[in-house]
UniProtKB/TrEMBL annotation:
PANTHER family: PSEUDOURIDYLATE SYNTHASE, TRNA PSEUDOURIDINE SYNTHASE-LIKE 1
Binding site residues for substrate: Y132
Keywords of the record: Isomerase, tRNA processing
Similarity annotation: Belongs to the tRNA pseudouridine synthase TruA family.
Encoding gene (name): truA
Protein name: tRNA pseudouridine synthase A
Length: 280
């Protein structure tokens, strides 16, 4: 009986000694121009968003931190409302987290908000949709200020035809014709919720929302729609490319600088309460 009591006390003591672990969600903004993408690479080492963030968060938490993000953006792609989570034993006031992390980040990356979330929340697997925006500066003369944020296209674009052509891509399809050869997704099927076109003077914004995207899917879709906008292909062209399941049938992969990860959507029950950046 005594042995049983002593054993019980030891187990409880061991449990009490184990530090609690908390899960935090981050809202991140970054200019992707000088980054080799989100994902950390060690061989050879490159400048990545993940690497600079993990270093900064680990410093404030006083322990090694591993981040999980909603969307692993490529080199040159920007993040407006990127979401990531991490687990830590550290307890800090929000102000301490924010000031500590941001003071250890370079000028082209910042944490815009942080909040504690349920252990059920996962930045990548809990997401039900992602929204990207691609910007095209459609003007005869280039803009130095927009050169790292948009694609310069000096030929006039027929946006009405581009809108009509895009409708064939809406819905759930096999998007093999719009994925890169490096894509590691287990299935080429994606559900594209919408493609919208908004023109603000010479700046054209193309917004794409889907449950998830294949590697280079957005940039390949935009490149294919550009062929229609430039008058090189008919409105039916994107549909034919989609049905071909052949990447070589589509348009170019447009450059990364025009692409921005704009929004990640989560189920209401576990949606992190973060102050998102809203740009009309």
């Amino acid at each position: 009986m005594k042995s049983h009591c002593h054993s019980s006390v030891r187990v409880e003591s061991a449990q009490e000694e184990q530090p609690a672990s908390y899960r935090y969600a981050l809202l991140i903004e970054y200019d992707g121009t000088e980054f080799k993408g989100w994902q950390k690479q060690l061989n050879p080492p490159v400048r990545s968003v993940e690497a600079v963030l993990e270093k900064a968060v680990s410093f404030v938490a006083n322990e090694e931190i591993k981040l999980v993000c909603a969307g692993r953006t490529d080199a040159g792609v920007h993040g407006i409302n990127q979401i990531a989570h991490f687990d830590s034993n550290a307890i800090r006031e929000k102000r301490a987290w924010m000031l500590g992390i941001n003071s250890n980040l370079p000028p082209d990356c910042a944490v815009r908000d942080i909040t504690e979330v349920s252990s059920q929340f996962h930045a990548r697997f809990s997401a039900v949709s992602r929204t990207y925006r691609y910007f095209i500066y459609n003007h005869p003369y280039r803009s130095p200020l927009l050169r790292t944020q948009s694609l310069w296209c000096y030929h006039p674009l027929d946006i009405i035809k581009m809108e009509r052509a895009a409708q064939a891509l809406i819905g759930e399809h096999d998007f093999s014709a719009f994925r890169s050869s490096e894509c590691q997704a287990t299935t080429p099927f994606r559900n594209l919720h919408h493609i919208t076109f908004t023109q603000k003077g010479p700046l054209l914004e193309i917004e794409l929302k889907a449950n998830a995207f294949l590697h280079n899917m957005v940039r390949n879709i935009v490149g294919t729609l550009l062929e229609v906008g430039l008058g090189k292909e008919e409105v039916i062209y994107p549909q034919r490319v989609l049905e071909s399941l052949d990447r070589t049938q589509g348009g170019i992969t447009v450059p990364p600088q025009g692409l921005h990860l704009y929004h990640v959507e989560y189920p209401e029950a576990i949606n992190p309460q973060l102050m998102l950046t809203i740009r009309e």
